[in-house]
C-alpha cells in the first residue's frame, strides 16, 4: 500500500494480509510470462470494475471498515490512475502476444480464505475446493479443449496422500474484471482462466506458509505450461 494511504487506513497489516493473496507470485514463478501486481487490494482491487475498485463501504470489503475517516478524492483518483495504467499495460502486453502467437491462455491466479469465521472453523469442503476454476466470462464451448485438460491436470496432483479437489464455478465463478476484460478485448484469441487456490498452503490467520504444499502447487502450475502449449493453436 502506498505510503500516503497508510495513515488513513483503519486496518492493521495482519488484517490486510488475511484478505490479500500472499504467495500467489510464488505459485506462478515457474511460468515464463508473468504479471505480478505489488499492491494491496485495499488500495486498488484490479479484479473489480473501475467503479468498485476502491473500497468505501464495509460491505465491499468483507465487513471491514477500511478507512479511518473516509478517503480524500485526490487519493481515490490516484488509486484509479494505478488501475487505468494496469489495464492499459495488460492490453498492450497481450496484443503483443496475440500478434506473435495468435491464441493465448492467461492463468488469472488468486487465493481465497476457507477459515474466515475463525482459525478453527473450516468452510464445508463441498463449497470450498482446493482449486476453483472460474469460467463465467468465457465462451466455454470454444475453450473446452483447454479448460477440461487443465482441470484434469490439477486433479492428478497430490498434496500429502490425497489428490487436489478441483471444481468449476463453485466457490467463485470467474466473474472478476480481469478475465472479463480479456474476453471482451480478445474474444477469439484469449482464454483467461480464473484459478482460485484455497489457502491450504498457509495459515490464513497467522500468515505462515506451508512450504511443502506451496512447492507442490507451484510445480503443478509450472507443469501446466507444456500442456497448454501443446493444446493452444491446434486445429480443432
Note down, in words, how this protein is organized.
The structure is a single chain. This protein is α/β, with parallel strands linked by helices. It has a single domain (6-231), classed as 3-Layer(aba) Sandwich (Aminopeptidase). The protein is built from six helices and six strands. The strands form two sheets. A four-stranded mixed sheet has the order 1-6-2-5, sandwiched between helices. The protein has a two-stranded antiparallel ribbon with strand order 3-4. Helix 4 runs antiparallel to helix 6 (211-231). The termini are far apart.
Keywords:
alpha/beta, Aminopeptidase, 4-stranded mixed beta sheet, two-stranded antiparallel sheet
How would the blueprint of this fold be written?
Elements: H1 13-18, H2 24-27, H3 73-101, E1 104-112, E2 131-134, H4 144-155, E3 158-159, E4 162-163, E5 166-168, H5 177-185, E6 190-198, H6 211-231
Parallel strand pairs: 1-6, 2-5
Antiparallel strand pairs: 2-6, 3-4
Helix pairs in contact: 4-6
Q: In short, what is this structure?
A:
The chain has one domain: Aminopeptidase. The chain has six helices and six strands, in the order αααββαβββαβα. β3 and β4 form a beta hairpin.
Percent range for helical residues?
25-40%
Spell out the helices and strands N to C: HHHEEHEEEHEH
Domains counted in the coordinates: how many?
Answer: 1
Overall mean confidence score, pLDDT = 95
Structural class: alpha/beta
Can you tell me the CATH class? Answer: Alpha Beta
What amount of the residues lies in strands?
A: 5-15%
Q: Shape from CA axes?
A: globular
Please work out how many helical segments DSSP would assign: 6
Number of strands: 6
